[in-house]
Amino acid sequence: MESLEQIRDRLLARFPGATVTLVTNPGPAAEHSLLIDAAHGRDIALFLRDDAALQLDYCSNATGVDWPDKEIVDVKKVSVPDPAGGPAKIVEEKTKRTEPGCLEAVYHLYSMALRHGPVILRLRTANRSDQVKLPSLTPVWRSCDFQEREIFDLYGIVFEGHPDLRRLLMWDEFKDHPMRKDYVAPDDFEWEPTPHDEVLEQAKTHYPVPATPAAGAAAPAPRTPPTEAKP
Question: What is the pTM for the complete model shown?
């Protein structure tokens, strides 16, 4: 199979207006990937599937990633003159800036026909708030169907063109997306008739604790089930 660099170069030649970036993986697996812009996502996916040399006809896995906003500190060394006339001092000047976060969909592609892969594709949203749309790749690889629904459910990426985009694991009325890194679970998320341990302590802040009977007070009479009338 062609290297990722060769695939990237072919994609850039085939789609001149596209952005295709090689993302390296420094880990032991060294599974590098291609980050493509959302506008060309569907067209590039079709090309990868139908190209005679690649024939990436199967998507084995699609998953989501949350990249929160990141605070970056830029350090610059500047020369400060000495008021007493001595040599200038070199000091570090620090400035902070925020790098906006995004949501990401990652696809692992294989060729069943040519027995090679994976080729890993990445698509990123513009931000994590009001621009979270990506093109659905389910029309290209049918195996993406439930996996894109899971990403939508847990991360909040809206896949345009998906044939049946709705929650998969959480119920329809559920709000938020549990796999986002800034998600805060409610205190009473674990419902049970007799909460215990941490759940009990959290529940006490939301629900009144039953009053305990005073010392020496008579215990309430046990309830007896009603008897059924004989026919």
Answer: 0.77
